[in-house]
Amino acid sequence: MDTSYLDKYNDALNKQRLQLESYISTHTGSVPVPTETSEVKTGKKNFLTDSGWVFIVLGAAALVAGLVVKTEGLWIAGAIAAVSGIYCLVKGRQQLRREAFAGVVDDIVGSVNGIVADVSKTWTEFVSSQNESLRRDIVTDDDTTAGKVAALGKVTDTAWYHVDMDKIRGTLMSAAGKENLATLHSCLPKLGKILTESLDSAAHAQSDIYDRLKA
Best label site of 19, 20, 111, 185, fewest CB within 10 Å? Predict the structure, then answer.
């Protein structure tokens, strides 16, 4: 069986892969990431900050009252409450900051999802078109009927583009833990690499179809 016609499919495959790799590189590199902390939307308060202020106010009042009436237990309790309030306030603000960076991660993941959807759509359409054309070439080939049936059985629609979004989010959350926007921005090439590796896997699966037909 003459399989030289498969060269055009390999050429088209490599061309499509390179085009999508360029698309991934360009669009992941331009995913919007805040450059200044002031651009990060941080909440004003939460349960811890509210509780912190309550402890501080009540503690301060008890401290002053204890000093005025010269009751040691009262002003000591007030001091402890005030310190606890400050602790809650600090922890609350830390939590708000973490939530703010988690929000930045959500925005980045949303942008990456859009890129993945575009690449997946283009790739799926390409694979379907390739395999449909390939089946026509097999049917019109001068091979035997048995040979054609065997060849058609090797053309399977399995070369789908899939990205592990949990890996994407995990990479970003690890960087967000440092609460540094520059560190988050430096993740973009890593995200591009993850998307490109997924594309390479899909391209390899499609290439395997052509290799099976040559065997």
Answer: 19
Residue 84 CB coordination number (10 Å) = 15
Range in 17-21, 47-51, 61-65, 196-200 the model is least confident about: 47-51
Q: Which of 114, 101, 122 is nearest to 187 (CA)?
A: 101
Is 148 exposed, middle or buried, given 0-12, 13-18 or 19+ CB atoms closer than 10 A?
middle
* DSSP state at residue 91: H
Please say if the pLDDT value at position 93 is more than 80.
Answer: no
Query: What does the pLDDT look like over 101-144, one tens digit per residue?
Result: 888 999 999 999 999 999 999 999 999 999 888 888 888 877 77
| Euclidean distance between CA atoms 125 and 120, whole angstroms | 8
DSSP states of 31-70:
----SSGGGS---S--HHHHHHHHHHHHHHHHHHHHHHTT
Whether 34 contacts 198, CB under 8 Å = no
CA distance 168 to 162: 12
With vertex at residue 114, the alpha carbon angle to CA 193 and CA 168, rounded to the nearest 5 degrees, is 40
Q: Which two tokens stand for residue 34?
A: 């805040």
Whether the predicted model's global pTM rises above the 0.85 cut: no
DSSP 5: T
Q: For residue 115, give both structure tokens.
A: 């890129």
Alpha carbons 160 and 147: distance in angstroms, whole number: 27
